[in-house]
Structures are given as C-alpha cells and as structure tokens.
Write a structure and sequence with these properties.
heterotrimer, A alpha+beta (159), B alpha+beta (159), C alpha/beta (343), A: 159 residues, alpha+beta, five-stranded mixed beta sheet, 5 strands, 53% helix, C: 343 residues, alpha/beta, 2 domains, six-stranded mixed beta sheet, flat
Chain lengths: 159, 159, 343
C-alpha cells in the first residue's frame, strides 16, 4: 500500500514538474517573440533616423546656389530663415514637410562665428520626449556678406 | 533491489530532463545578451558625419576679418602676413580650431588631436584634446593645396 | 489485489501519458503558430523597409541609374487622397504610404530586377529629385518614326527594358515576350483597335508632343472589364524629366498623383524664395546696387506667376514654362552683376 502510494506520489510529482516546465517554456517563448518584434521596431526607428538625416542634408531648397557651394554641405542662411518661417506660418507647408521630415526636429546651430540656433522643423508632439540626434558639420552661407560660418545641422528623431 | 534500481533510474531520468532544460535556457539567455546593435548604427553614422567632414568644413569657414581659414592656414605655414582681430594667423587658427572642435567633437564625446602639417614642417599647429595612445587612433586627413606646398589637416580620433 | 493494483496503475499511466502528451503537443502547436505569425510580420516589415530603403537610397543619388536586386514580392501602387500607396500583391496587408512623394512607378512591379533612375526636376532651380522606378518585366517600346520618341529612347538608360519598333503602320505586331506590361511611346494618335486582342490588357500607349520640354501627354489604355476601345486621358508636363516620369509610370492616375505632389513642393519652394527676397530686401541699404531687384517685384513676379500657373497646371502649363524662363534670365542677370542669386 505504502509502495503504491509512493509510486502514485512520484507520478504526480513528475507530472507537476513537466507541466511547470511546459509553462515556463511557453512563457519564455512568447516573451522572446514579443521582444523580437520590439527589436525589429527599434531597428526600423534607427534606420529611419539615418534615412531622414541623409534626406535633410541633401535638401535642395536650403542648399547654396551652385556657384557658391563648393564640395561641402553648404546651406543658404536666408533660405533657412525663410523656410523655417514658412513652415511655422503655413499649415500646408508644415504638412508637406511633415511627410518628408516625419517625427524629427531639425536645427541649424551656428558654431563659429556666432551662436544663433535656427529651428527649421519640429514635430509638435509633446508626448515624445526622448530623442536620438545626428550631427552634420555644414557651412552656413550669408549671400549678402558672402561669408561662410561653421555650423552644425542637428537632426533629432523622437523615439 | 530491482525496485530500488528502477526508482533510481526514474529519478535520474527526471534529473536529466531538468538539466537539459536549464542548459537550454542558459544557452538562449547567452544569445540574448547581444548589445543593442541597432542603436550603435545610428551613433556610428553620426560619428562618421561629424568626423568625416570636419576638416573640409573648417577650411571653408570665413573669419570675422573676412579671411577664409584655408588662406589663414597657408599664411601661418609660409608667409605670416595676415592679422585677424589683432592676432597673427597661427594664434588665431589655433584658438578658433580649438573652440570649434570643443563645441562639436568635444560635446559629442569624441577625443581628438588636430594636427596641421606640411612636408617641411611636421607641426604647424597641434591641438591636443586628451591625447591618443599610439596605435589606438584613426586619422581623417583633409589636404590643402597652397601656392607653396601642400598642407594637411589631420584629425586624429581616439578609438 | 495486486493484479487490480497493477491494472489501475497501467491505466493511470496511460491517462497520464495522454494528458502530458496532449499538453506538450498543444504547446508546440501554439508556439509554431506564434512563430509563423511573427515570421510573416517580420517578412512584411522587411519587405516594407526594403522598399523604403531602396526608395531612400535611390532618391538621394543625383542623376543616376541603379540596378537593384530582385524584389521577391509583387507590389501594386495606387493613389488615394492624393498620396501614393503600395500594397504587396496577394497578401492581406494594409496599403502602405510612400513617403517618397516624387516617385514615378508603373502600377505593378516586382518578382524581377528593379531599376531605380533618379533625375533632378528643375523649375528653374532644383525642386526635388524624382525617382523613376521600374522593373525588368515592364517593357518600353519607342516608335522609330517619331523624333521625340527616339529622343526619349536614347535618353533612357540601357539598364531599362526598352526597344525601338516600327509603329508607322499604326498596328502593333510583336510577340509577347512574357513581360507584365508593354508601354508604347509614339508621336502619333493610335488607332482604336491597334493591339492584338490577347495583349490588350498588358498595353498602354503614350502619345508625346514634338517638344519634349513642354506640352501634353495622351495616355491610351484598354480599360477593364472588356478591354474594348482605347480610352484617353490627357495630362500636361514641363521639362523632359517629368515627361520621362510619365512614360516610366505609364499610368495617368499615378502620374498625376506624383506630379501634384511635386507641384505642391514647387509651390512651397517658390513661396520660400519670395520670403527670402523679402528678407534680403530688409537687409539691403536702398542705395545698394542690388536693392532694385529685391525691393521691387522684378523677382517676385515670375515666382508668383509660377505659383498661379500651378493652380491649373493642365491648362496653364505654358505660363508655367514662360515664368521659369523669365526667372532663369533674371538669375543670370543677378550673377552677372554679383548680386545674391535666387539659385
């Protein structure tokens, strides 16, 4: 009798262990799957930020006139000022550039000489706080004085 | 005796299963501890942009005295005639280059040394941020053509 | 007694085996389902991203042709609410918006090598890089007897599937080489029953004017469901780059969709340039030699002319072209007298 009880107990114990193992495996497997999808989504985010940064540095509308550009990324200061004003004032312009710039903030920082900052575009979503930024050295050209300042274009992607 | 052996075999079998599962879980966990590669792709792109065009962008920058940096570097190396904001060209470039590098590379956490040299003068200008250990650096070179001899701006980045 | 116990034990063991076995089987079935769904989602994400990356990379190349690897799926493009979307054919996925607003593409591409050709649309300054995307299975056939068609034939890169054929008899006689789509480019009006019946659904005919820089394009299609008579649609264009885009697309709806997006951008850039002129004017002393250009409407008039012409482009394309010419002349003048140029 005792032997049978022991055996029965043993069998129950085996069953419990196997069920527990199966549950652990299931939970772990599902967790991994969710993690994988999250990782894929993150990868897309980072590739996106690089894609937009490349787009911005090649933006035709703010580039210097061909006679003045040289080989570097040269940006016309007055085009920057007018584009940022237009995007702020004109909703149609904002919508068009939202399609191009998506969820980013694009700023031009004067480094030398000067310390001004110009925000060309900002994705107006206060929920998104954290950002990943890319910095590109640029020449900020003043067409009236014909001088070029050392600047940094900051393209920050909201996560 | 035989029953005892049977019981022992059963327990051994259980133990084997549990050990296999634990080993499997451990293997999966080790693969899971890969660094988040995707984030570093975005940082890498930013780093390449910042360091790759720093030199060429600096060359074309205009000083407040309306001299281009490229010309001032040439003057510092050979003729020493230009005075900008009451400073000789060599002093002015050293000060300016340091300021720009600190505001860009320094802020991005890129340890660097900047060296301007020619075939006849190994150290026209040297700016040492934190110094790099010999052999533990990457050099980005920007050539400068002058009417005397070629000059180079080396941006030495610590790994 | 012992016998009964043994029997109970055996049956209990069997029940135990069935329950546990069943549980393990269920686990693996659920796991495989999750993995399959995940794999499908990943495949869709990868395809989406692959197309986005192809479009971005090609978009940022000036004036180049790129042969790309095969796109494993067929993608269908459509225009909804003025935006270009694409959908993976035969998959139950939602249409994805194309963020590259300047893409000229046929209705369907895929399952063959892609060709991405980027050109710059200028009016007269750089407006945007246009991306002309097509694949090996889309064949472009140019009428040998039409000078303008031949000019475009030679402008098309070698990598794109193209041929010069004789359409002088106004009848299409050729063998179906297994392409998905045949786009004929000619300078003459095609007859209504020009194509062999079995090929009608694969054919689009585009009539282009003598002047490849400005004019009207006529798209002729055999429409569903009967593919009977040719149906026409007329659209305007300025610059050869846009004409090339229309030919690559071969579809008047998709062409119009992309052209409208390009024109929206052109309008915004013109407005931006007007603002820039105003800003420069504020900085100039009235005695400065350049101030005459920036304080009067000399420069803003053609820019406003471009904006107005874009409102009704199909009827006003000639005005559009004229204002572009005028702006070009003024820019050269500004360069000559060393004043800040528009572009």
């Amino acid at each position: 009798m005792k032997k049978a009880q022991m055996q029965g107990g043993e069998t129950i114990a085996v069953m419990i262990i196997i069920v527990v193992l199966i549950i652990i495996g299931l939970v772990f497997g599902l967790g991994r799957t969710t993690e994988k999808i999250e990782k894929d989504a993150n990868q897309i985010d980072f590739l996106n930020s690089i894609r937009i940064a490349i787009k911005v540095t090649n933006l035709q509308e703010i580039k210097c006139s061909r006679a003045n550009s040289g080989g570097n990324t040269c940006i016309d200061k007055y085009k920057v000022l007018s584009l940022s004003e237009l995007i702020k004032e004109n909703n149609e312009a904002y919508v068009i550039y939202q399609g191009i710039f998506e969820n980013t903030q694009i700023k031009i920082n004067e480094i030398y000489p000067g310390t001004e900052t110009y925000t060309i575009y900002d994705y107006n979503d206060s929920i998104n706080k954290s950002r990943t930024a890319t910095y590109v050295p640029i020449l900020l050209w003043d067409p009236i004085k014909d001088t070029k300042q050392f600047g940094i274009m900051e393209v920050a992607t909201y996560n | 005796m035989i029953n005892k052996k049977n019981a022992q075999m059963e327990i051994m079998g259980l133990l084997v299963i549990v050990i296999l599962v634990i080993v499997g879980l451990l293997l999966i966990l080790t693969f899971d501890t890969k660094e988040n590669k995707q984030k570093s792709e975005s940082t890498k792109f930013s780093y390449e942009q910042l360091t790759g065009t720093f030199g060429s962008t600096f060359m074309e920058t205009t000083a407040p005295c309306n001299e281009i940096m490229r010309d001032m570097i040439s003057d510092c190396a050979f003729s020493k005639e230009i005075i900008c904001e009451q400073e000789e060209s060599c002093e002015y470039i050293t000060y300016t280059l340091e300021e720009i590098a600190n505001k860009t590379l320094g802020l991005a956490g890129i340890n660097h040394t900047i060296k301007i040299s020619s075939n006849t003068n190994e150290s026209i200008i040297i700016i040492n941020n934190t110094g790099c250990i010999e052999g533990n650096s990457i050099t980005k070179t920007t050539p400068i053509a002058t009417s005397y001899e070629p000059i180079r701006l080396d941006l030495i980045i610590c790994k | 007694m012992k016998n009964k116990k043994a029997q109970i034990e055996i049956s209990f063991n069997w029940i135990f085996i069935l329950i546990v076995g069943g549980a393990i089987l269920m686990f693996f079935i659920i796991l495989s389902n999750v993995i399959t769904t995940d794999a499908e989602k990943t495949a869709n994400i990868k395809t989406t991203e692959r197309l986005k990356t192809i479009l971005s990379a090609a978009e940022n190349n000036e004036e180049s042709i790129k042969e790309l690897k095969e796109l494993g799926y067929e993608a269908t493009f459509l225009c909804e609410f003025g935006q270009l979307y694409y959908q993976i054919k035969d998959k139950n996925t939602e249409p994805e918006i194309i963020t590259t607003n300047t893409l000229f593409v046929p209705k369907t591409i895929g399952k063959s090598k892609l060709n991405a050709w980027s050109t710059t649309y200028q009016a007269p300054y750089d407006i945007t890089t246009t991306l002309l995307l097509t694949d090996e299975k889309t064949m472009y056939l140019f009428d040998n007897s039409s000078d303008s068609a031949k000019k475009i034939y030679y402008a098309f890169p070698e990598e794109i599937s193209k041929e010069l054929i004789d359409l002088s008899s106004n009848k299409i006689t050729f063998e179906d080489q297994g392409h998905r789509k045949y786009i004929f480019v000619t300078g003459t009006n095609p007859e209504p029953q020009i194509a062999p019946p079995n090929l009608k659904q694969k054919i689009t005919i585009i009539k282009i004017p003598q002047n490849t820089n400005q004019g009207e394009i006529k798209f002729y299609d055999y429409k569903e469901p009967n593919y009977g008579e040719l149906e026409t649609s007329t659209k305007a264009f300025t610059t050869q780059e846009i004409l090339q885009g229309a030919i690559i697309s071969g579809d008047s709806e998709l062409y119009e969709c992309t052209l409208n997006n390009i024109h929206q951008r052109e309008k915004i850039i013109a407005q931006m340039n007007i603002k820039r002129i105003e800003l420069i004017n504020k900085t100039y002393d009235s005695r400065h030699k350049c101030s005459i250009y920036f304080s009067t409407t000399i420069l803003t008039e053609p820019l406003n002319g471009i904006i107005n012409a874009l409102e009704n482009f199909d009827t006003d394309y000639i005005n559009h072209g004229n204002n572009i010419e005028e702006l070009n002349k003024l820019n050269n003048e500004l360069r000559r007298i060393s004043c800040p140029m528009i572009y």
